[in-house]
């Protein structure tokens, strides 16, 4: 018999992050014990200051304990026994960590900004914890410094879905600041085009600003675009009309990627195309099928808006069919929900980030940060970047800007300390 638990699990597992859910559960206990909702109508009750202090202390202690469990997991990783760590037993989906996470200090930092401990009715939420994890990650990266490579997703991370990186984008001066400090930049996007012009049209605000900046040429060259997840590479070039120059595959492909044959690529895209066509019929979607050199997808016809459920259904069907096909076991692919379209790309962002690391001379995962918006385990394309480097999960371009400001602030603090 199918239990309710199994139904819930089957339906929701791809829409939950188990590590975040687990931490949320841990923090719910001090919230219940220390929050004072009745203070609203009982004026003589404990002051909000006292409550906030007690709650913060307990939340921070828990974050310290989780931090220790991550350290224990990292020790297991070093001896090849990560499957036996306590954290792995509790959260079976956790993968490898590239650095420790400064969770205690990050909680205090975010609490000062979000007043989590002062809340009496709303417990620590998914978003609170997501942001604490981001801060913990950048704190650890900056403390171990320098941050050598930052890769950014495009849609929703640097600009709104389907839009372009225009000159007024406030991420631009922040990316230039990172470059000035010696950090390399990769734009690792699913948007897959074979011509530099198309990427220029999407990214011109940043490319023009970099071109016009006073930065030395050696630094300006520290920007690459990896398109189609891991299929097309362009580097910044002030001499090119579109400020980007195609990089021949032999200069950036990893050895494993050389094994991807054209026959397999065509076969995988054929299987995906058939599955997408069948889903369009079945779900009565008004969709147009788009077949590209390294991708196949569906986009809405005539300005339609697909509902989330339809998009998710499509992704899960195509993914399942590909996973069960022989070619899907030979060749990495990424099926994802792009907000109002569904695409299947050859390769995925882990390969895209690895290619950037290789292009810049072999940068390590623990010195690389990928910033993206899609980190659920199915139907999301930034998720795979976790195999290649540390990550930050943002929910909007404004959050990316906030994260870059956090990095700048932490770097300044770090420099003051070492001076
Ligand atoms: P990202 O968020 O920067 O990874 O961009 C994802 C979006 O790029 C998708 O939702 C599509 O709208 C668009 N796109 C354009 N061409 C492709 C392609 O070849 N593969 C996947 N997505 C594409
Ligand atoms: Mg995105």
UniProtKB/TrEMBL annotation:
Presence of keyword Coiled coil: yes
Cofactor: Mg(2+)
Record-stated family: Belongs to the ISN1 family.
GO BP, one annotated term: nicotinic acid riboside biosynthetic process
Alphabetical keyword list: ATP-binding, Coiled coil, Hydrolase, Magnesium, Metal-binding, Nucleotide metabolism, Nucleotide-binding
Domain of life assignment: Eukaryota
Protein name listed in UniProt: IMP-specific 5'-nucleotidase 1
Top-rank EC class of the record's enzyme: hydrolase
EC number per UniProt: 3.1.3.-
Organism for this UniProt entry: Westerdykella ornata
Coiled-coil regions, chain positions: 45-72
Keyword Nucleotide-binding attributed: yes
UniProt GO molecular function: 5'-nucleotidase activity; ATP binding; magnesium ion binding
